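Objective 1b. Sequence-to-structure analysis of Amino acid/amide ABC transporter ATP-binding protein 1 (HAAT family).
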Amino acid sequence: MEHALEVRAVSLRFGGVRALTDVSFSVKAGELFSIIGPNGAGKTSIVNCISGRYRPTEGQLFYHGRDITGMKPNARAQLGIGRTFQNLALFHHMSVLDNIMVGRHHLLKNNFLTGSLYWLTGARREELEHREKVEEIIDFLDLQSVRKATAGTLSYGLRKRVELARAMALEPKLILLDEPMAGMNFEEKEDMARYIVDLNEEYGMTVVMIEHDMGVVMDISHRVVVLDFGRKIADGDPADVLADPHVRRAYLGEEDELLVDPDDAPDHPSASEHAA
């Protein structure tokens, strides 16, 4: 299977501080891939390198075989890389509908040279096409009831869903999700997990996700990479990664109940129940 993303020996320094050291992994086209690790492990730093917000100090990044290491974020977005942020980046004074429409701006055909002719010929038609796409996303994410609401008035869980909608509006082939379920209650997490799986399976998007909820990671990820202090310590199938002794020490703790065999400790909750 073709690699959608390859991270090759990426290091990132801020002055004398090393945020990432020689991190390598690959994501296959069509995968739902999770990046996990303790706070400060470098998860958001690697996503920022992939999206173009940061440029690696060393190493290279490839998207479908193309070197994107030196590309600006806008150029990567035009190639089909979209993202959400750990801290919400919505326009709080704008409606849900308008926030999602902002995500379509990379797809607009109008430019400085063709502007006058465009507005005389195709503007109305293109606007209708974009609105149809946005309405499809609103239906997909069950946002019909708040489509005209001001984004800043919504609950945190709904705002996270609107940010996902805006990232979807770009029609990315690869979507980067930075803690899409942070701050959500159990029901909101269940809904978001379902949307992410459907995004991967129905829309065919390759998903790279940072997530702390180990129950969710175990349930929906195809593969997982684990970072600790900016270094990769494990990479592979979720069950194998969770059982890795390095992960046990660095991320979960030696005696973490997530790693106890249920047959040996029948009174303990399951991995999914404990993590939830």
